[in-house]
Amino acid sequence: MKQKALQIFLAGVNSVLPKKLVRTKLLSESDIINKADKIYVFAIGKAAYLMAKEAEEILGNKITDGLVVTKYEHGGKLKQLRVIEAGHPTQDEKGVHATHKILKIAKCANENDLVLCLISGGASALLADYPEGSTLNDLKIANDQLINCGATISEINCVRKHLSAVKGGQLAKAIFPATTVSLILSDVIGDLLDVIASGITAPDNTTFNDALEVIKKYNLTDSFPSILINHLNNGQLGLIAETPKSDNHIFRKVHNHLIGNNKIALIGAAEKAAELEFDVQIVTDSLDGDYTEVAQFILEKIDSNIQIKTFNNPAKTSNTPAKTSNTSSKTSNIQTTIIKSHCLLFGGEPTVKVTGTGKGGRNQHLALYLATKISGRHNITILCAGTDGTDGTTDAAGAVVDGYTINDAINDGIDPNGYLSNFDSYHFFKQLGSNITIGNSGTNVMDMIVVLIG
Questions:
Q1: Which residues have a Cβ under 8 Å from the Cβ of 251 and sit 6 or more positions away?
Q2: Which DSSP letter does residue 296 get?
């Protein structure tokens, strides 16, 4: 069942790989492409390399200039576009250099030019810039606090947008008066264009005041770098320009297209599950909130979908009299109980407030927590993994557990509760061989949870 869960997950990932998605949309934009004097290409995010590779195949030598920015070990060699690998989720100097380079190229685009932006999850961290007077270390401290405080991605990106000169629609502003066409892979719940990659080419509906409220909500005011707090305060006072809103004239020349999301991945996974003869249900593509709440929701869905089917199976009787006995054949009713095989699919992005010192990610932590809840229920298998192939700062995408996982660990002298409380799920699953390790998938549309019952 663990292998089947993995097959279902991988089918979902394969359905949102950039090759088909980028090609289909670019070919539909042929009119805009053909009218452009010059074409610039920016690809930013965990899926940037494969997205850019497909764009190169289609546009060829029509590309004037551009840049690809992706996570370390997620890049490769391209024919025309330079690839810069940078820090993610922790920013570094490579990301700073790449951001400055993108802004410089963007300002070269003229009114009759086209800038193609290929955007995927991870772009918000990879585009590393910070307010004047602050440092990269200030940005790192702020980013770490935001990621680990339990804030949602919308809240995290609200703050990021107001500490940046490229996020929150400001890349589109730099590109103007050229035309912007963005092809976007969503890694956020609700596919909100102003949240994906911190909305670099979308109008921003948040404010400096909203960013300050996020910091207050999660009690970060005293620990957040003071120079960044001062920047946000100056913005709230109107001393720094707000991010461009939906009524800004620059967006008349911006075309944002969502080409892939978690729902498409879940449909691909469902097709594979049906092929494997499971009764499939896509429960939601919008899981969010604390991992304990998410786990409770999943467990409730499991309990409500376990169906027992009972039927009577009359034994066959012969019409031929017995040769050795005068005793007639008797018909016996045999009652058989079958647990129908189900596959429940969930998508989204739970949050984890990290308080331990271990190594892991939200998917592995959720999987370990769920393993403690289904221990002894041997008809349940659960896989939790990120579609990008990465969970936290580990080399695993997630983990797969079943009703035997906890007992197996205890029998091997491994204390599940100790690893759970220390947020060290990676090393827990490493010892059991239950990590899901697929490497860089080339895409990124949040997380998937595959539950098999039967």
A1: 169, 172, 203, 244
A2: H
With residue 449 as reference, give the H or E element that holds it. Answer: strand 447-453
CATH number, domain of 438, equals 3.40.1480.10
Gap between the Cα atoms of 261 and 448, Å rounded: 11
308-314 vs 380-386, strand pairing mode: unpaired
Contact yes or no for 169/244 (Cβ under 8 A): yes
Alpha carbon 432 to chain centroid, angstroms: 25
Q: Which amino acid is at 159?
A: V
| Residue range(s) defining the domain that contains residue 305 | 263-311+338-453
Whole-model pTM: value is: 0.85
> Kind of pairing, strands 279-287 and 342-348?
parallel
Do 294 and 177 reside in the same domain of the chain? no
Number of domains the chain is built from: 2
Q: Check: CB of residue 449 under 8 Å from CB of residue 380.
A: no
Per-residue model confidence as pLDDT tens digits over 355-405: 999 999 999 999 999 999 999 999 999 999 999 999 999 999 999 999 999
Element (H, E) at 117: strand 114-119
Read off φ and ψ for residue 399, nearest 5 degrees: -155, 160
Question: Dihedral angle at the C-alpha atoms of 75, 55, 129, 360, nearest 10 degrees?
Answer: -40
Q: Residue 171 is part of a domain; what is its CATH number?
A: 3.40.50.10180
